[in-house]
Amino acid sequence: QVQLVESGGGLVQAGGSLRLSCAATGSGFSINAEGWYRQAPGKQRELVATITSGGRTNYADSVKGRFTISRDNAKNTVYLQMNSLKPEDTALYYCYGKILITYTGEYDYWGQGTQVTVSS
Question: Is 60 exposed, middle or buried (0-12, 13-18, 19+ CB in 10 A)?
Answer without folding.
Answer: middle
